[in-house]
Design brief:
The complex is a heterodimer. Chain A folds into two domains: 6-81 and 116-330, Alpha-Beta Plaits (2-Layer Sandwich); 82-115, no CATH class. By secondary structure, chain A is an alpha+beta fold. Helices cover 23% and strands 15% of the residues of chain A. The longest helix of chain A is centred in the C-terminal third of the chain and has 16 residues, at 294-309. By secondary structure, chain B is an alpha+beta fold. Chain B folds into two domains: 2-208, Immunoglobulin-like (Sandwich), CATH 2.60.40; 227-317, Cytochrome c-like domain (Cytochrome Bc1 Complex, Chain D, domain 2), CATH 1.10.760.10. In chain B, 15% of the residues lie in helices and 29% in strands. Chain B contains six helices and 15 strands. Chain B has helices at residues 2-9, 35-38, 227-236, 261-264, 267-275, 306-317, and strands at 18-23, 43-49, 63-71, 75-83, 99-105, 124-130, 135-140, 147-148, 155-161, 164-172, 180-188, 200-201, 205-208, 288-291, 294-297. A six-stranded mixed β-barrel of chain B has the order 1-3-2-12-11-13. A two-stranded antiparallel ribbon of chain B has the order 14-15. In chain B, a hairpin with a 6-residue loop joins strand 7 (135-140) and strand 8. The longest helix of chain B is centred in the last third of the chain and has 12 residues, at 306-317. Chain B starts with a helix and ends with a helix. The chains are: A alpha+beta, B alpha+beta. The interface between A and B is medium-sized, with 21 and 15 residues.
Chain lengths: 335, 320
């Protein structure tokens, strides 16, 4: 366990699925050199297959005795999706090949069979009670990382000063035990360099006092970043004081450090089209992801929202609204 | 020198094959398919699945590797040959390549390093070949410590044909300081996702250099005890509570698996492990505690009569 832990809270009530975080991460870190297929940050539609496909059933994490489980390594084409090569030359070059007078449509050269967001916005349920929400995911920089436990070489380490989990590129020999063992499938093998890589919580930005690119670029202002033990930081307030931010799949046993404020939803409609008072996103769906405290958290959020509606003060709502983006981050704070 | 040699050979006798090094004019052939290699008689060396530390192989699945050795004017070369139905030559996401390694003690003449890549204070050097074209010199002081070394001119070439990998590895060497040199082997089957500790390995063998005194008497280190009595003692002395071995219904994973203890370890190593468990500690998680920077095995030293110890040894040596 590290001395301190930087953590992130994502408010799913505000995520609009715009993928600005994904783009920020990709252009910063993963758009070349064998990383093209990786999404250190992705936003998936839930319910859905997720990215990589069916990661929630891919195994890994720890068993009841605390022993790390191996899990499956996803398949590149079937589970991650091979990045599309597009027919730019033919489609965009006016002197290129033509079918009759028309240029060919811009399209992937090989018909793709899977990719991140393959089932975007599909969700589940029947109209008018169909539902979905967005689940943005990065490495959870776990307190008890399964990737670290699975590496036979000790090539993965957790930084003392902020708990960021990193793969030592000098030590890694590309065995991929970490890839299988991470139950969130947030470690990736780089086939070009033959080593594993993962989200680095933008540590070069952190060291300059800046929030990770995904959080700073977030258009919906859903991401809070601060130290867990910093009582003045938004993460501590949401996780410890208000207890409205919950870990994802805590039962995997890794003690993840990304927390989620579960999404509220409008009422279901009955056969006559009248609100039934039941939440559109079934509680069970959220409990599966975020654990048994979901109903109580949703109730608290609803109550505080009502207060705010009535014009009363609500520290929680003010926090979640995040009037000033910079107040969502407290990074350069020495303990 | 002769005394040193004798001491070195002592632990090897029970399980070591004697691999003769053939002197060749010029240099050994780089091509593993060369008739200069294939015409030479090979020594078969048994390989056992690595089950001492996780991630471990299933105890089933012994293998074998054929070894040839040649020495030219300046280089020492080894030729390895093993069956593999399907070659795996590339690495990718969830894809692993076939590989082989040759292991040497870095301080020949001293006590032999632990067969699993050496132990603290007893490093090994490795020549590593992988079917994706990787050729490396590595060093290690036990499981998990493998570290790439600057290139020292190791060359290797592998050819897969008709269900058989043949790999020739060579490096320039000075005149060997000893007439015999300990050496061990490991093979990975990429198709079976074998990498790291998922491998088959041999016990320490000896290379016999040209001109070595042919008759160094190899002392018989096999135990005079009874394996049948030893097997019963495994229960009585509590070994069965932590170690897995054929016939132990509990299949515990608290300590190294002993399913092939006799195939991988010499009698004196096993005896020393019983007498002084913390002398060489297998670095598996939970196998030891760290006390003042020293690794202390969780196994208590053996308590019992000499006859009981010999019976246990006889049983362990029978596990091959």
């Amino acid at each position: 366990m590290s001395k301190r832990q930087l953590a992130m809270v994502m408010d799913l009530n505000k995520c609009i699925g715009c993928q600005t975080c994904t783009s920020a991460c990709k252009t910063q870190w993963t758009n070349r050199n064998g990383r093209d297929y990786m999404y250190w940050n992705n936003v998936e539609t839930h319910p859905g297959s997720g990215y990589p496909r069916n990661w929630r059933k891919s195994g890994g994490g720890f068993d009841a005795a605390g022993k790390v489980k191996q899990g499956h390594i996803p398949n590149l084409a079937r589970d991650y999706g091979v990045p599309f090569e597009m027919n730019y030359t033919a489609a965009l070059n006016p002197r290129g090949e033509r079918e009759g007078d028309a240029l060919p449509h811009l399209a992937p050269l090989t018909p793709p069979t899977f990719g991140p967001n393959w089932d975007e916005d599909q969700g589940a349920g029947e109209y008018p009670n169909s539902f979905h929400f967005y689940l943005p995911r990065i490495c959870n920089h776990c307190t008890n990382p399964a990737c670290l436990a699975a590496c036979p070489r000790g090539a993965i380490y957790k930084r003392e000063e902020d708990g960021i989990v990193l793969v030592d590129q000098e030590r890694c020999r590309g065995y991929q035990h970490c890839v299988g063992a991470c139950p969130y499938k947030k470690v990736y093998f780089n086939p070009r360099f033959g080593r594993s890589e993962k989200c680095i919580f933008c540590f070069p930005r952190i060291e300059q006092g800046l929030a990770p690119a995904c959080a700073r670029q977030c258009a919906g202002r859903i991401r809070f970043v601060s130290y867990l033990d910093d009582a003045d930081g938004p993460v501590h307030k949401l996780v410890t004081k208000w207890q409205v931010a919950l870990p994802l799949h805590a039962e995997f046993g890794t003690q993840p450090n990304v927390y989620y404020v579960p999404p509220l939803s409008p009422s279901k409609l009955d056969a006559q089209g009248r609100p039934s008072g039941e939440r559109r996103i079934p509680d069970a769906e959220l409990i599966e992801l975020f654990g048994p405290r979901v109903p109580e958290v949703l109730k608290l959020l609803e109550a505080e929202r009502e207060k705010k509606k009535r014009g009363e003060a609500s520290e929680l709502m003010d926090l979640l609204i995040a009037y000033r983006h910079e107040e969502m981050f407290r990074i350069g704070v020495k303990k | 020198m002769r005394r040193l040699l004798f001491a070195l050979l002592l632990p090897l006798a029970a399980i070591a094959a004697d691999i003769p090094v053939q002197r060749v004019d010029g240099e050994p052939a780089a091509d593993p398919m060369s008739s200069a290699w294939l015409a030479q008689a090979a020594v078969a060396v048994p390989l056992y699945p690595q089950a001492s530390v996780p991630p471990a192989m299933k105890a089933a699945g012994k293998g074998s590797i054929k070894v040839r050795a040649q020495r030219g004017a300046t280089t020492l070369a080894l030729h390895l040959e093993w069956p593999d139905r399907k070659p795996a030559a590339s690495r990718g996401v969830g894809e692993f390549a076939d590989a082989a390694a040759v292991q040497w003690p870095l301080q020949p003449g001293a006590a032999l390093p632990y067969i699993g890549m050496g132990h603290r204070g007893a490093p090994v050097a490795l020549w590593f070949w992988r079917a994706d074209g990787t050729v490396e010199t590595l060093a290690a002081e036990g499981f998990g410590t493998l570290t790439a070394q600057p290139g020292d001119g190791v060359k290797a070439k592998g050819v897969w044909k008709n269900g058989v990998w043949r790999v020739a590895l060579s490096r320039a060497v000075n005149k060997p300081a000893m007439e015999r040199m300990p050496v061990a082997f490991a093979v990975w089957n990429g198709e079976g996702a074998e990498r790291a500790g998922l491998k088959r390995l041999s016990a320490w063998q000896t290379l016999r250099f040209p001109g070595a005194t042919a008759k160094v008497s190899l002392p018989d280190t096999a135990s005079s005890g009874s394996a049948a009595r030893g097997k019963r003692l495994m229960q009585a002395k509590g070994c069965a509570a932590c170690h897995n071995y054929p016939g132990n219904p509990a299949k515990p994973r608290i300590a190294p698996d002993l399913s092939h203890a006799g195939g991988l370890h010499a009698a004196d190593y096993l005896a020393e492990s019983m007498r002084e468990p913390s002398k060489i500690v297998v670095p598996g998680k939970g196998y030891f505690t760290e006390q003042g920077g020293r690794r202390v095995s969780i196994m208590p030293p053996f308590e019992g009569s000499e006859a009981e110890r010999d019976d246990l040894l006889a049983f362990l040596l029978s596990l091959r």
